[in-house]
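Notes from hallway chat w/ T.B., transcribed later so I don't forget. T.B. wanted the structure written out for a chain they're using in a teaching module, and asked if we could keep both sequence and structure tokens in one place. Agreed to drop them here.
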Amino acid sequence: MFIRRLLLLLAVMAAPMVALTMQLYRLTVVRGDELRAEAEQRLVRRQWTPTVRGTILDRKGRILAQERPSYDIAVDYRVLTGVWVRDRALRAARRSVGAGWVELKAEARDSLVDRYLPVYEAHLERAWDRIALTAGIPREELERRKSAIVTEIERRHADIAQRRRGAEIEAARARGDALTDAQLRQIDRRAAQPIAEQRAPHVVAARVGDSVGFAFQLLVGEEAELELPERDTAGMDVVDRVELLPGLQVWDGGDRDYPLETVTVEIDRSSFPGLLRAAATQKVTVDGVGLHMLGRFRDRVYREDAAAREGYLEEHPAVKAAAFASGVDRGAYRDGDRIGETGLEKAQEHHLRGLRGMRTRRLDTGEEEVLEPVAGRDVQLTVDAMLQARVQALMSPEVGLSIVQPWHGQESDTQPPGTALNGAAVVLDIDTGDIIAMVSTPTYSRDQLINNPDSIFEDRVNLPFINRAVSKPYPPGSIIKALVLAGAIDRGNYSTAQRIACTGHAFPNNPEMFRCWIYKRYSTTHSVTFGNDLDGSDAICASCNVFFFQLGRRLGVDGITEVYREFGVGERWGLGIGDFEFPGTIGADNDPSKLAVGDAMQMAIGQGPVAWTPLHAADAYATLARGGVRMTPRIVMGRERSEPVDLGLDPRGIAMAMDGLYRAVNDDRHSTGHHITFEAGREKIFNVPGVRVWGKTGTAEAPDLRIDPDGDGPQPPVTVKKGDHSWFVVLAGRDRPRYAIAVVIDYGGSGGKVSGPITNQIIHALIAEGYL
């Protein structure tokens, strides 16, 4: 019996021993590494140090965008309201009585909490004093800021709660529910749930400098020991470890500075046409220089942004290795980060974004390890900022070249004299394919973006947010004729020895269709004015529609489609500036299979179902100047692009097209781009001494711009703009073509009268900036 009892006793004692042994084994062997790492973590304090976003430079090294380092000092909302104090006092009170807390009545609990409140209140007061001192802000001002934040957030919460309550009651009534007092109380409780702003930190000191920011960085996560009004069982003081500055966060609040966004340009008006000419120079201040290219930021990071970064790191292992040098991605997005939303700031986000530094301190030994931040990489553009500013100034309404003038011959009742004209200009270096200027008007300023965004995004007539140079489709008009001639000769549809009669209209029995502009305006033909039928050079010089209708018929649908394709229509360039790049379209719904021979004839003069952009135009003319070699335009230096492609065009076609383009601006009798006629006489469009110009005008029929004033309401759409788009594309150089310039003016009318003088002044601007 005794032995049995002894064995039973040993068994009873063995059970907990086995359990303890198993737990010890689990903690030391199974989870040993995990627990050791966790303990190690508690002995390590890590602090992030901010990085600097990369700089954007123009082709000459001028700074277009740079980081102005600064920091935002933020404090958790529960600390701002004082809720933190009561939370800590409640925690201390519960810990002091342990399991007995549940047995205490409400009054006893409140009394116990009140006992601890002064400790935490005094600590928070010291913390606010420390924040005010470190930030260099008077304590009274800090209190004012705290109060303003709390007042605004509470107002938002009240508004949202009211809307939540109203929505729930309305939904319940729609379901036919009879709301009881109990249900209304439940709705009130749900409506009163905290909003996101009541769980987040808020900035109490914005845009502080380096010294203040770093001082706060060193205080983040630091702890203090608070002596509580009690003693433990051994009679020792009981302390609570809390943050030295509760709820403190330091955010990278660096401002992006754009030194050349506003530029004053001095314009020499001595070479302007007619009544716009003046001996004195004019100072023009332009805002938003390059803004379409540079882009803007947003302060909110979305899930897809983090996913995009992960994808980028996977594609670039070396960058990923550097980012994860500390074990975590030092470039990961965090609360308060800004991210590029448009333009280069968006497209080059992963290049411009740097890596944060990390300061690691061991609490047990005091050792520190510092991993320095890595600045973002700089991005250099091919654009010349001062040339960009000059072109923008030339296209500003106050200069007079981009407003409707009486001598333009505008017949549109929607744009009387004095109306500002919108448009775009591209300047391309022929030898390199570099874009050295790309202007879209109207533009906007960052101040306007901040203070009056509706004036940008709600302007449905002028659409200032669109980069017209690459994003807006335009019918090519007659500027396409040089390309069609080269393509027809290359395909054997036309011989350089052939001549084609200009009969005034393409179909003998239907003089109202497919007419030549000269027949429509003067009731004559180019064969009459030349005294003979036309060859290809004549046809480009005089911009004869009938000649090109015939080439379009000969090329047919497949041939005309091929010509447009080989000169880049249907392709994007991959510029890397974040803008939507309109690739160009051929055919209704961009489907060439829907084309008919009549469409091919219209497309041969740049009309019908076809569209491209000013960059397409400049690129195509540069290809002609290179003898048929296509080179992808570039705007970001160092960006990979495809190798140049020789289209293998017949040199005779290139030569005839170039001869026609030269005559189109230099023949004083037949050309459409040589002069402007005023009441007092006529003037040459291009007047730059020593510079040769090849070029072509274009007056492209455009659909009316109609705006529906009340959306889907009863009012009919209103026509706000109508008329033709004005084109001029030239090649310019002293001994050979060096630069391709494409200018388009929306609803401007005559290519020669409107876009011509602007193009001429851009050549003058190239000289002023040292390019010609």
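Follow-up for T.B.: The mean pLDDT is 89. Might be a good example for the class.
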